[in-house]
Amino acid sequence: MDKFDRIFQLHHILAGRRTRIGVPDLQEALGCSRASVYRLISALEDKLYAPILKDELGIRYDPHAKGAYELPGLWFTADELQALLTFQRLVENLEPGLLKDHLAPLEKRLQHLLEHRHLNLNEAFHRIRVLSMVSRPSGQHFRKLAGATLSRRQLNITYHSRTKDEITERVISPQRITHYRDVWYLDAWDHKRKALRTFATDRVTHCVEVDNRAVDISHSALDDHLASSYGIFSGKANKVAVLLFSVERARWVADERWHPEQKGQFLIEDGRYELRIPYRDHRELVMDVLRHGSNVEVVAPAGLREAIRLELQSTLSNYQK
Predict the structure, then answer these.
(1) Of 7, 89, 109, 176, which is the most buried if we count CB atoms within 10 A?
(2) What is the reported pTM?
């Protein structure tokens, strides 16, 4: 822990107390010598103008000082600085350039603070990798979509659907930008259909901001409609898939998070793992089940079991020609 961190910690200790704290207790809390404690107190008082009261019983902040005292300027511990800039690198990897213009002034300030602490941020960057698999580009209108989502403006978009291979024009109120399985999506209120819809950002072929404020849907309503089902497909979950995994595969699946409301248990009789998952649309769930091959069986419902059987039968036919 360097001097900056100890000053920050000393401030945190004093700000959280109403009574005095003695120097021996500060030595233990800060992990430094008596002389170092006094130097930190002097720095906090003389250079940072903290309202410190001192007597033979210890020190504390003056309770009668105007307002609560806070450290001036942008103040982070070394770990917080590294975490913040590493987070920036992760965001840049998700969508290059997305936040670069907005974070540039902050990054310059953070780099200056890091230099004063003799920290090497490049080392952290080189030790962290973000790997993308089967990713798709965010699309030429991603910045407009993200900007309207944050500024709460309506959009007039042209959308090319992959599922139906049709082009439609929509007036939407963007609600959330979602990054899911290396693909960006826009959750929005569709004014013509009067319903929530999810759009792949790379399929938006035209985008113009409308001079109307976006309709706001409550966070709870968005979660209920968009997050209760399985995967990217919206709509409230109305079915529960019961999956049974082999003993070998159970060691992995038991630690995986397929859905926020999933329920899993090891079967006492043979050690297999039973996983129950809420869903509405089975298409994405079928793909995830199939990647486990013969190590999983769909027990219920019958419709999902039949969908898996037909998919496997169709796949097998490709190899019997």
Answers:
(1) 7
(2) 0.59
